[in-house]
């Protein structure tokens, strides 16, 4: 059983910052992929950022230069630092491990 616990969402004004965290626990042999996705109302879930076992990172074009994904291997935790937030970043953010396990989601709301 693998559990992902997310934290750090909330309400922020445009231009502000938030930092999301996702801690994984349970029977995980190795973590090769850690990612953040988001889903806005009426839209499909989309990948925001991902970090791979070699620490290679990928970002959606819409967040490049504003968001930074990082991981703490010792604690099986992945972070998403979000700066210069825009109203269009409003969504429920989900973390994902190994493209298998999902967190419960955390709401991020950016007011204009």
Describe the global form.
Answer: globular
Order of helices and strands: EEEEEEEEEEE
Biggest pleated-sheet summary: 7 strands, mixed
What is the overall pLDDT average?
Answer: 95
Q: Kindly, what is the distance between the CA atoms of the first and last residues, rounded to a whole number of angstroms?
A: 40 Å
Rounded to the nearest angstrom, the radius of gyration is 13 Å
Give the count of helical stretches.
0
Number of strands: 11
Structural class: mainly beta
Helix content: under 10%
Q: Which descriptors would you attach to this protein?
A:
single chain; 112 residues; mainly beta; seven-stranded mixed β-sheet; 11 strands; 0% helix; globular
How does this structure look, described?
- There is one protein chain.
- This protein is an all-beta fold and 112 residues long.
- 0% of the residues lie in helices and 56% in strands.
- The chain has strands at residues 2-7, 10-13, 18-26, 33-39, 46-52, 57-59, 67-72, 77-82, 91-97, 101-102, 106-111.
- The strands form 2 sheets. Strands 2, 4, 5, 6, 9, 10 and 11 form a 7-stranded mixed β-sheet that branches. A 4-stranded antiparallel β-sheet has the order 1-3-8-7, with no helix packed on it.
- Strand 7 and strand 8 (77-82) form a beta hairpin.
- The model has no long low-confidence stretch (mean pLDDT 95).
